[in-house]
Every structure is written in C-alpha cells, then in structure tokens.
Amino acid sequence: MKLASSNGGTFRGATLAVDGAPVHRFLGIPYAQPPSGELRFRPPVALPQWTGEVDATGYGPAAPQNPDARDTDETPLAWSEDGCLNLNIWTPDTSGTARPVMVWIHGGAYLMGANSDGMYDGARLAAAAGTVVVAINYRLGALGFLHLAHLLGEGFVDSSNLGLLDQIEALRWVRDNIAGFGGDPHNVTLFGESAGAAAIGTLLGMPASEGLFRRAIMQSGTAERFRTPEGSAHVTADFLRLCGLDESSAGELRTLPVERLLAAQQQLEEGIAAESYAVPLPFQPTVGTPSLPEPPLDAVRSGINSGVDLLVGTNLNEGSFAVEMRPDRPEDPGYPDRAAAVLSAGGLPGDCAQGYAEALAAVLAHEPRGKELLEAAIADAVYRQPSNNLLDARLQSARSAAHGRTFAYLFTWRSPAMGGKLGSCHTLEIPFVFRHLASPDAAYLTRGKGPQALSDTMSGAWAAFARTGAPDQPGLAWPEYGQERRTMMLDDAPRVEADPRREVRLFFAGIQVRQQPVS
C-alpha cells in the first residue's frame, strides 16, 4: 500500500489481517533530520521537501543505547544515531471519517527502549479500537539529556531536553501528516509508560507542546522527574570524566564515537544503581532552560495545557521488580534502612520512615515488614505519590474555565510470575492496553492467564478516552477524579474507590506541607 506525504514523496507500507480486520502498517518513517554530525546535541530539525518513495515495511533503528541486561532476546537491538528519529503507524483505514490518534511514548528510564518492541505493536489496538496508533523513537541517555548549556554556549541551551524536543517534533509531524493515514490531527492523545509517562508529565509543563495534543494518558509516570541546571551540571562533570575529558575539552563530545559515549553512560548508570534500590536515572530533563522554564507541576498549576484531558494511574506493586530481581537482596534486617533510603531519595526527611510504616500499616491492616515495606516505599516514593501530586495540581489549576477532565486508576491484577511475588508489577498493564496477553513478549508476566475481559476493558477505555475525553464504555462508568479522588481499580472486576490508600497519601501530603518554606 502507498500513501502520499505532505512533503511530496510517498510511503510504501503493508496491509495485515488482524483479528479478522484489515490494518495498514507503516514502519520506520523519519520525522526529523538525522541528529548526528553538526546536529548532535542540538534540537531536532524538520525534514525538507522530498520526492521519491520511502520503504515503510520494516522497523527503523532505535536510538543509541547499551544492551538491557534483563533482555533474553539473542538478537541485539539495531540502533543508529543517524536514523533513530522515526515513527510507526497502524491504521484501520486511510479514508473516510478522521479517526482519533493515539501516540505512544516508550519507557526505559530515558536510557533504553524502542518503538520496535513487540509489546508496542499497535495493530491489535488499532483493529479493535478503530483508532490510528503511532509509536515514536526519541534520543536517549547522554545524546538526549546531557546538560551542556554552561559549557558549549547558545546553540546548546536545550541539550538536556532534546529527547522531549524530539517528541514535540514528532507531534508536529503527526499534526501535518496524520490526516493522510486516516487520523484526525485535532484529536491526538499521548500515552506512555514509566519514562514515557514521565515525558508526558513533563510535556504538560512545556509551552512549546501546547496545541499539539488534546489528551494524555500517563501509565506509571510522574511530572517530577527532572533536575536543576546545577544538578545536571554535576552529572555532566561525572560524564566528562568517564569520557576522559574535562570542561575545557567538552566540545570533543560532539565528535567522539557513539560507542565511547555509551561506555561512559554505562559506567555512570552502574555507579548510581549500586547506591539505590530505585530505578537509576542518570539522565533527566532540566528545568530553568528555554524549553522547560519552570517545574512541570508549577506550570500545570499556572494553567499550561489546562485544556488537555488527563488519565493518570499506577500499578499496585511498582517496586516489586527492584526488590525481587536484584541478585544482592539484603537479609530481612536490612530492609527498613533500605526503605528509609528510598524515601529520603524521594525527597522525604530522614526521620520519616517510621511514620510511613505506620501509615502503610493502616492501609494493609498489618505491620509491613521486610520486602513488603521496601517494595511499597519504592512504589510510593517513585511512582504513586508523585502521580497523586499531579492529579492534585490539576485540581488547583488556575485556568479553571478551560480545564480538561481528569481521571485516575490503580491497576491491581496480580501477575502469576515467580509464584505471585511480583504482584501488580511495573509494566504489567502494557499487554492489557495493547491487547497482547497471549504474545511471547507478555508470556513471562501473564503466563497466559491474563483475563481477556480486563484487557478488553482497558483497551476499550483507553480508546474511548482518546475518542471523547472520557474512559466510559458500556458496562463501565468511570467518574472524574474530582475532590473525592475517585479512582478506577482495575482488576478482574473493575470498581470505583474514593481516595484509595488514603492514609499513605495524607502522610506524604503532610510531609510536603512541612517542607514548604515559611513566607
């Protein structure tokens, strides 16, 4: 199948039969110029006019990254600095009524991941939901988030936010081209998981993103994953040292082989991972920069992107991977200290661990011990409570007259993997949304036992939200979050609960009030 581009050329894709319905697939479409050579560490540049035909039948390369030690696939991920800014499209039809567009941003701690991951194949979601599904790549690690403004000058003032600027450029491409693929450029929904959701939380606070998307779904993400210029400069100093450079020779980063950058990146990541049970995040966006002038939560409160409809949620056991799958798990007496360190890294004072354990005990109806305490601390400090902060910021937004709707969920279906030890772990909801419960990529976590009815509910709710701004569907009345903090509990039998795990939320909220400066 061939489609014309707004830039003058054509795309050659393929047509598949998916669950008895046709889906047209276009893979590896470039949305910006190659970010290499003179464009390394610089903002993305739009593609010029072009002619000819693009072969869109195979995946494009991922952004440069180190291998994931947890990946058991024997085929290494193909990456390239030159061709990484590409996207994939799945569409049920390229003609007729314009369809809602769902743009997926992958996770991976801003260090790894790709739109070619089998779990992100949008064919089944597009076929079942009748939406156009897009999955994008963006620059990762040092190439996407290394802070160089203080060293290389004006042309590099936004080098620490390039991964986000790539996403904005991809959204501009969608705006200008998606109608040719049967999509509605005025009805675009972002959805993403983990770092992908954190990227969305940050985009909500970036002025340049306004008007590029109408709705957003954040799965296990936060709007608080960023550094100050001073904090990012410290990371840059460490990175330069690992590259064998110093501040006076920082310009050599622009010509070093990518492999050398990745080697330094790996060393930096390993150093952070050795000190923390939470996810190592050496590279993050930087506030106080032209593209991100203020913390995203402050921007949301002031009304940036206030008209965007928002769906935010987490999984119950977000920290279980970090606890259960590390080879150096401490013995039981070490867990309280680990939990206290995680809470402290999340910004809580050092004396709060006992208060957290007491609040958690009120939720669990028993005293949390050992791994349970540590896993919960990771889930709350890194994922759930920052998500609650964003939900509450929406309630406080200054532009109430133009306010988009806000919805929340908590995913609680438990994985049977590892004898059930992982619970409702990080990433578990992804195959439910993309309708891949039976796929080999999901087999480890679902063991083929994932309830199809829950997948139908979730994929249907995500599509309904993309279509109308509300995740309601027949048999599922999903209320707005509101002052009652109504949250959809996603399990075999979904139900609405007001302010779930309230005692823990109030504990974190009380700590944050204590930490506010006295005026």
Describe the structure.
- With 519 residues, the protein is of the alpha/beta class.
- It has helices spanning 123-129, 141-145, 149-152, 162-177, 195-203, 229-242, 258-273, 296-302, 320-324, 335-345, 353-364, 370-395, 430-434, 443-446, 452-468, 502-515; strands at 2-4, 10-12, 14-18, 21-30, 53-55, 86-91, 99-105, 132-136, 183-193, 215-219, 309-315, 406-411, 486-490, 495-498.
- An eleven-stranded mixed β-sheet has the order 3-4-6-8-7-9-10-11-12-13-14, sandwiched between helices.
- Helix 5 links the parallel strand 9 and strand 10.
- The radius of gyration is 22 Å and the shape is globular.
- The relative contact order is 0.11.
**Category by helix and strand content:** alpha/beta
Number of helices: 16
Which segments are poorly predicted (pLDDT under 50) over 5 or more consecutive residues? 513-519
Q: Largest sheet, if any? A: 11 strands, mixed
Tell me, rounded to a whole number, the average pLDDT: 91
The termini sit apart by 64 Å
Question: What gross morphology would you assign?
Answer: globular
Determine the strand fraction and express it as a percent band.
Answer: 15-25%
